[in-house]
From TrEMBL, chain A:
It is a multi-pass membrane protein. The keyword Transmembrane helix applies. It is found in: Cell membrane. InterPro entries: ABC_transp_permease. GO terms for molecular function: transmembrane transporter activity. It holds the Pfam family BPD_transp_2. This is Beta-methylgalactoside transporter inner membrane component. The chain crosses the membrane at residues 16-37, 69-87, 94-111, 117-140, 149-171, 202-220, 249-270, 276-294, 301-319, 325-347. It comes from Ruegeria atlantica. Its main location: membrane. One of its GO terms (cellular component) is plasma membrane. Keywords: Cell membrane, Membrane, Transmembrane, Transmembrane helix.
Automatic annotation (TrEMBL), chain B:
It comes from Ruegeria atlantica. Pfam families: BPD_transp_2. It is a multi-pass membrane protein. It is found in: Cell membrane. Its main location: membrane. The keyword Transmembrane applies. One of its GO terms (molecular function) is transmembrane transporter activity. The chain crosses the membrane at residues 6-25, 37-58, 64-84, 96-115, 135-161, 192-214, 220-238, 245-265, 271-289. It comes from the Bacteria. InterPro entries: ABC_transp_permease (IPR001851). This is Urea ABC transporter, permease protein UrtB.
């Protein structure tokens, strides 16, 4: 008989090892999946993980790593704060969309004015849009005790409809020959989130993501509020006795994750993507959930996990064009990763023991 | 705009069709939550059910086999949730999310060759005599068998929870798993069965969308119905008949919204399309004041330390 024995303290070693084990297991099972789809598994896995970094065209793909990783890290950092305290914002996708709409809207309102303050205003507007969208579930939870999981998720669908509405109406390019979608912000100098060093992929979103990582690290390790967040997640009763104000925590965690998701959306729409369009969002808000868990809800872990996830996005695209691997296979691959991670986490919290059958 | 074009009889009849996927998924999740487990993977199990049912009924030509396959597909996916939450003792919220993310990807992968294919039709049952009654006949007695199965399931779940020993044990496990364990009930086993039942129901609900309601396969076609079903369980305060009522209410909103779109009302399409989600939020707000009826062990991991 195998029994599980709860560890008095979660194992440090395993908590570092599980993400790696999960990645390896995902590679193995992903390989099996690719083999079932009739692709050479070694080649497919190699294409996904090796090609973007060291392949022939790595000079093109490496900057993409920053471009794809930045929004994931930004969103995941915000989510991790709430997840740590047991506050589940799973509507980051909606907050991302609203950030993009607000940010782009603010920029386009100034068109074609050429001024240094246009971009900062867009940044603020983007953060505000995301914050606003996350403040709805936060407020409802604080005031009425409404479940934030369902409300934040419902708001994703509302945001998607909003996106469709503005790209066909309010923000539609007046010179766009009737096509849906806004003006391209890439060709509006003052609003363009351009690369800071040409060809590096480094734009303001990447910088902000790095700042967010540092900020979250300091908050969680050196600040009272961060301590309260951790305390609430790990020992809710103790937190109550310590006088942690749950309402404040909910408003902060949800608001912060919303603002960061909004920023991510704003940087994306003003930079790599360029315009508000119906299918502007590609699911970063959901993938960021995987990133947050894969990074162990730890800022540095999230940074690494964001990079890895960006790798699977880029590698997946390469595998799509070179090997004809379906796009959905990559989605399955990413989902699998979360599965294995959650499963192997057992080893962090429990010890597996062989036990004789005894009469209790 | 011509509201006169909306036929009230057809409206109510299609309301029942729109409500059925929600109802099936919600009644399954209700049983799962009654057993003290929160499975947020309903959306994922529905979409996997939708494609399994679709694929099998296209391949075999039999919608019945399709629905059976859908139930199996949903249950198999929920088995992953079982492994994570009951054996690996993982967090239920995270595991449910994993199920949904995985299910959405997996269904898209399976469904690639089925886009644009037309599934075999199930056909409606015309209950003799009753279906000939004017107005009530077409509304109530001219539907497909799965719709009636949904209603029968509600009745069965209600009766089981209320009057049988199995129902009592299930509720005991959901209210206080430590006490249930101390009394000698197999908490994990009961929860596994509940989760599998929930998965099968969600699978049926998904297949109802792809085989009867739409009927077609498109990626991500469940479009949040699974999440609304989760909200519906809260709305129903974990009571089966209220779930039925709630499903019809939401079905009504969906159908009315679609009819208003078709009738060309002056409200933009996007605002009509977002209305079911906004109404879900409003309903949640109104009902969230009362949490007393939630199973006490909901979402908590059970591990017998001895």
């Amino acid at each position: 008989m195998i029994v599980l024995e709860k560890r008095p303290q979660p194992s440090k070693a395993w908590s570092y090892a599980t993400p790696l084990v999960a990645v390896l297991a995902t590679m193995v099972f992903g390989g099996i999946l690719f083999a079932i789809l009739g692709k050479n598994p070694i080649q497919a896995i190699g294409t996904i993980f090796w090609e973007p970094l060291f392949g022939e065209f790595a000079f093109y793909y490496r900057p993409q790593l920053l471009v794809k990783g930045a929004p994931l890290v930004l969103i995941a950092i915000g989510l991790s704060l709430g997840f740590r305290a047991g506050i589940w914002n799973i509507g980051a996708e909606g907050q991302y969309i609203m950030g993009a709409i607000f940010g782009a809207g603010a920029g386009l309102a100034f068109y074609p004015l050429d001024a240094f303050y246009v971009f900062p205003i867009m940044v603020i507007a983007g953060a505000f849009g995301g914050w606003l969208w996350a403040a709805i579930p936060a407020f409802l939870k604080v005031r009425f005790g409404t479940n934030e999981i369902l409300v934040s998720l419902m708001l994703v669908y509302v945001a998607e409809q909003m996106l469709a509405s503005v790209s066909l109406g309010l923000l539609k390019n007046p010179e766009g020959f009737g096509f849906p979608g806004s003006r391209n912000l890439q060709s509006y100098e003052s609003a363009h989130n351009a690369e800071l060093i040409a060809g590096s992929g480094m734009h303001w979103g990447v910088v902000t993501a790095l700042i967010a990582v540092i900020f979250a690290y300091v908050l969680l390790n050196r600040h009272m509020l961060g301590f309260h967040i951790r305390l609430t997640g790990e020992a809710p009763r103790a937190a109550k006795f310590a006088g942690v104000n749950p309402a404040r925590l909910i408003l902060f965690c949800l608001g912060m994750s919303g603002a960061l998701a909004g920023l991510a959306g704003m940087f994306e729409v003003a930079g790599p993507s360029g315009q508000v369009s119906i299918d502007f969002n590609v699911g970063y808000g959901f993938t960021a959930i995987i990133v947050a868990f894969l990074g162990r809800l730890h800022p540095v872990g999230i940074l690494l996990a964001g990079g890895l996830m960006a790798l699977t996005y880029i590698g997946g695209e390469i595998a799509q064009s070179q090997l004809g691997l379906p796009a959905a296979a990559i989605q399955v691959f990413q989902g699998m990763l979360l599965f294995f991670l959650l499963a192997f986490d057992l080893l962090t919290n429990y010890r597996i023991r062989a036990a004789r059958n005894e009469v209790a | 705009m011509d509201l006169g074009e909306i036929n009230p009889v057809l409206l109510v009849a299609s309301l029942m069709v729109a409500a059925t996927p929600l109802l099936l998924a919600a009644i399954g999740e209700l049983v799962v939550e009654k057993a003290g487990v929160l499975n947020l993977g309903v959306e994922g199990m529905m979409i996997v059910g939708a494609i399994s049912g679709f694929a099998i009924s296209v391949e075999t030509g039999s919608p019945w086999l399709g629905f059976i396959a859908a139930a199996i597909g949903g249950a198999v996916l929920s088995l992953l949730f079982v492994l994570l939450t009951q054996f690996a003792l993982a967090n239920q919220v995270a595991s449910g999310l994993a199920l949904t993310l995985f299910g959405l990807g997996f269904s898209a992968l399976m469904g690639q060759s089925y886009v644009g294919v037309k599934p075999p039709s199930m056909g409606d049952i015309h209950i003799p005599l009753l279906s000939d009654i004017p107005v009530i006949g077409p509304i109530l007695f001219q539907h497909d068998p799965i719709l009636y199965l949904g209603i029968a399931l509600v009745a069965a779940v209600w009766a089981t929870l209320r009057y049988t020993r199995v129902g009592l044990i299930l509720r005991a496990v959901g209210e206080n798993h430590d006490a249930a364990h101390a009394l000698g009930y197999k908490v994990i086993k009961i929860r596994i069965l509940a989760i599998l039942f929930g998965g099968a129901c969600a699978g049926l609900g998904g297949a109802y969308i792809s085989l009867i309601r739409v009927p077609q396969w498109t990626e991500g076609m469940t479009a949040g119905v699974g999440w609304i079903a989760l909200a519906l369980v809260v709305f129903a305060s974990w009571k089966p008949w209220r779930a039925l009522l709630g499903a019809y209410l939401f079905g009504g909103i969906t159908v009315l919204q679609l009819n208003l779109q078709a009738a060309g009302v002056a409200i933009p399409v996007e605002y009509l399309a977002m209305s079911p989600y906004i109404i879900t939020i409003l309903v949640l707000v109104i009902l969230s004041a009362d949490k007393s009826s939630a199973p006490a062990s909901l979402g908590r991991t059970f591990h017998a330390s001895h």
